Amino acid sequence: MMEKGTTKECIELLTANRTCSPHGVVICDRDGYLASVEIRPEGIVEVPDDHPDWRIHTNNYRGKEFLKYE
Known about the structure:
- The protein contains 1 helix and 3 strands.
- It is an alpha+beta fold.
- Helix content is about 15%, strand content about 25%.
- It has a 3-stranded antiparallel β-sheet, covered by helices on one side.
């Protein structure tokens, strides 16, 4: 991801490449796009937020697609 230029490119990379364990990342780029992404072997979820300047990152799933794993 460090070689990508935008948050969108990082999300595309995560979508295209599966992982073997769950984790989460917060990604931002120089244009100010900020994303909190939950990652599982089944896929990724960009967690929506109601403010463009901050994201809440927790140790439990916030994306509705992954709540069943809690």
